Amino acid sequence: LLSLPGGRVQKDESISETLLHELREEIGLETNEAFHPFGMFLTDIRIPVQDGSVGLIFSIFKCHLSSKFCPILSKEHINFEWLDPLHASDRLKKQYSSDFLEKLNPYK
Predict the structure, then answer these.
(1) Three-state secondary structure along the chain?
(2) pLDDT more than 90, % of the chain
(3) CA distance linking residue 11 with residue 5, whole number of Å
(4) Which residues face 39 on adjacent strands?
(5) For residue range 71-91, what is the model confidence (pLDDT) as tens digits?
């Protein structure tokens, strides 16, 4: 099953802080490289929480990393691949909606 690093924004945490802590936890990225918002997609998926449910929003960021960076995977992952947006959207099409994949690769 192909997946992307991700997680929930915690109370009193910014989106940038969430991005950095999820990348640190899931792939071992420890530096503050350049991150730029690339796209966002509001899904119709609801996630149960204690007081009801919350909506799921996919956020896509461009991350400029050092060519020397090699991911250190968490126990959530067993392998990784570097993919350009076209190939990533093709590989993710079984798990994600076409609307989200169009945001990931608007030039397809």
Answers:
(1) CCCCCCCCCCCCCCHHHHHHHHHHHHHCCCCCCEEEEEEEEEEEEEEEECCEEEEEEEEEEEEECCCCCCCCCCCCCCCCCCCCHHHHHHHCCCCCCHHHHHHHCCCC
(2) 2
(3) 19
(4) 60
(5) 888 888 888 888 888 888 888
